[in-house]
Amino acid sequence: MAWEDRTPFEAIEEQFGLQEKQVVKFMRSQLKPGSFRLWRERVSGRNTKHRKLRPAGVLRGYCPTQYKQR
What we know:
The chain is mainly alpha-helical.
């Protein structure tokens, strides 16, 4: 969920109990240094990773096409 750009940190916290700082620490430990830097650059300030920055009409935690049935 953390890797996905459209999943807000608040949804991760609701589901797994991890705050944003804990998610960042986890991602740092799991990714290679270059991959972590790219991820961090991508999600920093991204309006889809924070509910308060999202448009008012978006209430879901992920994109409807993110989990397609196969």
